[in-house]
Design goal:
Elements lengths: L17 H6 L11 E7 L6 E3 L7 E3 L1 H13 L4 E6 L19 H12 L4 E6 L21 H18 L3 E4 L6 H11 L7 E2 L4 E2 L6 H7 L18 H13 L5 E4 L5 H10 L5 E4 L2 H8 L5 H17 L3 E3 L3 H9 L3
Parallel strand pairs: 1-3, 1-4, 1-11, 4-5, 5-6, 6-7, 8-9, 9-10, 10-11
Antiparallel strand pairs: 2-3
The structure holds the ligand NCc1[nH]cc(CCC(=O)O)c1CC(=O)O and zinc ion (ZN) (2 copies).
The site of one zinc ion has 5 residues, from loops.
């Protein structure tokens, strides 16, 4: 008996044809609704600044962003994640400029809602772009993070974005119990059925955020974020953080960064199969892949990575590659 010709051991017969192969890859397709595009919004309406550490990524004033989005929405873009950057508004200890009427995100939301009625608008909610000390929360007198005060402040900022027209508020600060505080703020203003909460539930203290912090000018002035972002080796804390955020009412969960954390994606999806799961392909990951330009090899590598993220359990991928992905997949549908 020759093992190599034994019928029950023939595997390749099931996928010799490309259509057969598709059937072997369930729930891994990359369609426009599986992609969310992060955008950097400046105060100056007409500004357009390339980000040197992130090829093909720009920081936009709202007028320039509207032009860029017009093109992308025509190509199928379904959702964006907005990050505000202040240059003339002052940074202070409590991040006051996060929710003043002059904040670029607050000013832009009504215009975006009107110009792109079908585009899903998510806002990153954090204090680090707006605090003088650069931390994601508020500091107490001894310099430690004050979670209670931070959570209260984060909920105020989330509510301001919700009132201005955000469909999704996405707190990335990692302060304890912020999801509950945000949900309560939405309920008390009767916005709970018009605004969804996407928690950066499993966010790790990664060294792959460097280009983003340069872009946002949001690095901490002293110390680091290891006391509130998760230790990269800890699957246990990630599971507890996701469970806590689900209990507090999070509508969607997130794992961040992406590629090195696919085990966390799979565990989180298995733990909460009924919550949409986002994965953030962060700036450092983008920079590593994008170095090859947009050659055919970069494109196939990128699509492979996205497929693997979907296989691991991600429903939506937040990625600076969104424009390239849309042009790759629009040729295929
Ligand atoms: N508020 C924190 C925040 N919001 C988005 C990113 C990273 C995104 C990226 O690297 O692309 C970070 C990480 C950090 O600075 O600690
Ligand atoms: Zn932050
Ligand atoms: Zn953030």
């Amino acid at each position: 008996m020759n093992l190599f010709s034994s019928p029950e051991h023939i595997l390749q017969g099931g996928y010799f044809h490309s259509t057969l192969r598709k059937l072997q890859e369930p729930n891994t397709s990359i369609e426009p609704h599986n992609i969310m595009y992060p955008v950097f919004l400046l105060e100056n309406d007409n500004a357009l600044q390339p980000v040197s550490s992130l090829p093909n990524v720009n920081r936009y004033g709202i007028n320039q962003l509207m032009l860029a989005l017009k093109d992308l929405v025509a190509k199928g873009l379904k959702s964006i994640l907005i990050f505000g950057i202040v240059e003339t508004l002052e940074k202070d200890a409590i991040g006051s400029s996060a929710d003043t009427p002059e904040n670029p995100v607050i000013k832009a939301l009504p215009r975006l809602r009107e110009a792109f009625p079908d585009l899903l608008l998510a806002c990153d909610v954090c204090l680090c772009p707006y605090t003088s000390h650069g931390h994601c929360g508020l500091l107490s007198a001894n310099g430690a993070i004050d979670h209670g005060a931070s959570t209260k402040r984060i909920a105020e900022v989330a509510l301001a974005y919700a009132k201005a027209g955000a469909h999704i508020v996405a707190p990335s600060d990692m302060m304890d119990n912020r999801i509950k505080a945000i949900k309560e703020a939405l309920v008390s203003h009767k916005l709970e059925n018009q605004v969804s909460v996407l928690s950066y539930s499993c966010k790790f203290a990664s060294s792959m955020y460097g280009p983003f912090r340069d872009t946002m000018k949001s690095s901490p002035m002293a110390s680091d974020r290891k006391c509130y972002q998760l230790p990269p080796g800890s699957a246990g804390l990630a599971a507890r953080a996701a469970a806590r955020d689900v209990a507090e009412g999070a509508d969607c969960l997130m794992v961040k960064p992406g590629l090195p954390y696919l085990d966390i994606v799979r565990r989180t999806k298995d733990q909460f199969p009924n919550h949409p799961l986002f994965i953030y392909q962060v700036s450092g990951e983008y920079a590593m892949i994008a170095r090859g330009g947009d050659s055919a090899e970069v494109q196939t590598t990128l699509m492979e990575i996205l497929t693997c993220m979907r296989r691991a359990g991600a429903d939506c991928i937040i990625t600076y590659f969104a424009p390239l992905i849309l042009s790759i997949i629009s040729g295929k549908h």
